[in-house]
UniProtKB/TrEMBL annotation:
<dbReference type="Pfam" id="PF00903">
    <property type="entry name" value="Glyoxalase"/>
</dbReference>
<dbReference type="InterPro" id="IPR004360">
    <property type="entry name" value="Glyas_Fos-R_dOase_dom"/>
</dbReference>
<feature type="domain" description="VOC">
    <location>
        <begin position="4"/>
        <end position="122"/>
    </location>
</feature>
<dbReference type="InterPro" id="IPR029068">
    <property type="entry name" value="Glyas_Bleomycin-R_OHBP_Dase"/>
</dbReference>
<protein>
    <recommendedName>
        <fullName>VOC domain-containing protein</fullName>
    </recommendedName>
</protein>
<dbReference type="InterPro" id="IPR037523">
    <property type="entry name" value="VOC_core"/>
</dbReference>
Length: 134
């Protein structure tokens, strides 16, 4: 058997709020609560298990999701409908923009716990960058 990521735990102030937020943006379903976790499964079988912990214990993380062009359009529309601040870069220097890296599109936004979320339409390194761009 090859090694695959099966699940990861995502710390949240409110596990239900964070799970529902991400599921809504990405057009996914929130699974049945299981013990202290509220799961959201991705198409490739990886489950994000949201767990409520005290806010001061949350270590902010970055989660990137590869989506189709149509899924990007739908997710980006939901980001705009919610009035979320979004960026073309992970450092928040390009607010209100998306990027076109790797021959696709990408955008960054924050979830309710403060984690950095990213949606991209092309994997990193899948398309050569034009000269002079990074």
């Amino acid at each position: 058997m090859s090694v695959e990521l099966n699940h990861t735990i995502v710390h949240a102030r409110d596990n239900r709020e964070s799970a529902e937020f991400l599921a809504h943006i990405l057009g996914l379903e929130v699974g049945a609560e299981w013990g202290p976790f509220v799961p959201v499964a991705t198409a490739n079988g990886v489950t994000l298990d949201f767990a409520s912990i005290p806010p001061e214990s949350i270590t902010l993380q970055h989660y990137a999701f590869l989506v189709s062009d149509d899924e990007f359009d739908a997710a980006f529309e939901r980001i705009e409908e919610r009035g979320l601040t979004y960026y073309a870069d992970p450092h928040g220097k390009q607010p209100g923009e998306i990027n076109h890296h790797h021959g696709g599109r990408g955008v960054y936004f924050m979830d309710p716990a403060g984690h950095g979320m990213e949606i991209i339409t092309r994997p990193y390194g899948s398309h050569p960058e034009p000269a002079g761009r990074s």
